[in-house]
Amino acid sequence: MSSAGALLLTISLTTSVVGSDKLMLPGAVIEAGLAKAGCTIPPAEARIIGTERLSGRLGIVEVICWRAAHNAGSILFAVPEHRPEQAQLLAVESWQDGRIQRSYSVSSPGYDPKTRTLSSSHKARGAGDCGTIQEMKWTGWHFRLLNVWSKDHCDGEPFEWDSRDRWQVFPKQVSPGRGLEAEGSVSGRDGAQSSR
Do residues 50 and 113 touch, judged by C-beta distance below 8 A? Predict the structure, then answer.
């Protein structure tokens, strides 16, 4: 996600601050979130890496959850204004094995406070020529999956925000006269297709 399009689409949580004071979380809240999400970062090494406005009286706080060779993941907390002890770990919908699943960690998140849209990018290898890009929308309770682009073939050609539309796998794309181009199950939603 190194293109100008990505910069315009998302604002990294790591560079934003809610209001004039950076939101803080009690250690017990962070530790409980790390455990619930199955994070691999030890609580002693966990840190807040970004904050942003989620809604009128809620902030969103990003905490590092895991690190791998080419990616890093975070967990997100909704934090009520002036009550950080009541922060809640946020669930996100993600695309896993062709299905919508609920999870807690997000790979390389970016957040646009104007549209309340969360983005995620996950490289399948260091060259960044394959992987998955996802967009999720804040519902007031969790982040609902909107779009998924997945490029499985690592061919040396860039897989970035500007070129992602060729690999959209969710929602299913319909072309006139060609029928469905991408297949995908939404059995994570009780087997019923939901309207988006």
Answer: no
